[in-house]
Structure of Phage tail protein:
Amino acid sequence: MMFLEYITKDGDRWDLLAHHYYGDPLGYARIIAANPHVAVTPVLPSGIVLLIPIIDADNVVIAEDTPPWLR
């Protein structure tokens, strides 16, 4: 599996990162699983290096209410 590296900033949250990278805030579980060295807290401390798993487009689930320009 391939990863992107991301350095957290003030106010980052797991769900916001999942929404940013996957378009789905509920996709945070795969980011947490890729970063067992990071405590699961509501708000991440700044300066932490996270690995963001790169997923195949075939594995992306698009919600019915997703606007057409985001599909």
Remarks:
- Strands lie at 3-7, 49-53.
- The chain has two helices and two strands.
